[in-house]
């Protein structure tokens, strides 16, 4: 529940206001609802789709009053989230390799730190790789998180070839019998071509050293950036074979609706949500809990 209160106000709070004193649900109500969904960052495509479905339910006389409408909306959102939800099972391969991508500032390093800490605490042997060699600060930040979690970080000097770091990290992960290798990559998005080339190179090295890897290409998105996060999802999905998403900064953001947009429009599983800056502030994404917090 932590972190969703502003999204809850922005979405369900406004729906409640819309429904206040409405005796009957009609097409106009749904039109107004569509506007609320869009401004709550559920995304235009998903909002339109939800309203179409609700229109059909209205025709079938399923939406007698505001409560019925809210219940129906909750069901439809949940169904869409559940369709793609899939928690990561890092026990499905050894070492399980996660390549983490996303633009600078979205919370990549923090998310990696939280993951390292969580899995180290549960007794997994975790290794981190600082393949963002463009910013010295990135590797330093990663080391701070690594120390905190009691996890080693493979790094080279600034400006080194990211693939060389990845190569060393894979070798180390195998030699040390790591359960989980998490690779931080540069958030450079100069051009799509650039990104594609870099990702291809990293994937090639990982796959050669550890057959079947990477098992997850995790895109980190900052929920507070709303529609910007949607554009990033689109671009990265086209360029980098994204297999899952971590949505950060849901705490304090009113734009939590983008969880629905990302999952439904890009058919991507939201694996984790970030609900704070602390080491414990990462949750597995659970549609039931998410929807319950939203519609509480
Ligand atoms: P990176 O550049 O993508 O590696 O981003 P960082 O991990 O350095 O994070 C950028 C800022 O966002 C830092 O101040 C983090 O503390 C903050 N941050 C990351 N995740 C969350 C989150 O879930 N909630 C909040 N409130 N802040 C976060």
TrEMBL record:
**Compartment annotation:** Cell membrane; Cytoplasm
E.C. no = 3.6.5.4
Q: State if Phosphoprotein is listed as a keyword.
A: no
Question: Which residues hold GTP?
Answer: 102-109, 184-188, 248-251
Read off the Gene3D superfamilies from this record: P-loop containing nucleotide triphosphate hydrolases, Signal recognition particle SRP54, nucleotide-binding domain
Q: Which reaction does it catalyse?
A: GTP + H2O = GDP + phosphate + H(+)
Classification via Pfam families:
SRP54 (PF00448), SRP54_N (PF02881)
Q: What SMART domains is this protein classified in?
A: AAA (SM00382), SRP54 (SM00962), SRP54_N (SM00963)
Record's keyword annotation contains tRNA-binding: no
InterPro entries assigned: AAA+_ATPase, P-loop_NTPase, Signal_recog_particl_SRP54_hlx, SR_rcpt_FtsY, SRP/SRP_N, SRP54_GTPase_dom, SRP54_N_sf
Q: Which UniProt keywords apply?
A: Cell membrane, Cytoplasm, GTP-binding, Hydrolase, Membrane, Nucleotide-binding, Receptor
Please list which residues make up the signal peptide: none
Domain of life of the native organism: Bacteria
- Domain SRP54-type proteins GTP-binding, chain residue ranges per copy: 269-282
Note the topology in the membrane.
Peripheral membrane protein
Query: What family does this chain come from, according to its entry?
Result: Belongs to the GTP-binding SRP family. FtsY subfamily.
- Describe, as the record does, how this protein assembles with itself and its partners: Part of the signal recognition particle protein translocation system, which is composed of SRP and FtsY.
What's its job?
Involved in targeting and insertion of nascent membrane proteins into the cytoplasmic membrane. Acts as a receptor for the complex formed by the signal recognition particle (SRP) and the ribosome-nascent chain (RNC).
Q: What is this protein called?
A: Signal recognition particle receptor FtsY
Q: What organism is the protein native to?
A: Geomobilimonas luticola
Gene this chain is encoded by: ftsY
